[in-house]
Amino acid sequence: MKKYTVLVACGAGIATSTVVCERVENLLKDNGINAEVVQCKIAEVASRQEGADLIVSTTILPTTYSIPALSATSYITGIGME
C-alpha cells in the first residue's frame, strides 16, 4: 500500500496547523489511508513539496505548486465540515 505525504501549513507552523494536523491524521486513519502528515510553515511549502502528495493550508497560498492544495478553513471554523 502506498504511503502518502500530506503537508499541513500555516503562517508560523505552530498553533493552527497543529489543530488541522490532528484532524487530518484522524480523517486519514478513519478512512484507512496510509499517510504521513507533516506540519510546516507556509514559507517552507515550496522546498518541501517534492515528495509530498497534497498541501493542506490554513492561510492563502502565496503561489501555485506542483501538487494539489486544499484550504483548511472548514477544519478551523467547523463550517462546511460535512
UniProtKB/TrEMBL annotation:
Recorded GO MF terms: transferase activity
Keyword Cell wall biogenesis/degradation: no
Pfam families found in the cross-reference section: PTS_IIB
Alphabetically ordered keywords of this record: Sugar transport, Transferase, Transport
Origin superkingdom: Bacteria
Keyword Cytoplasm: no
Ranges in a coiled coil: none
Protein name: PTS sugar transporter subunit IIB
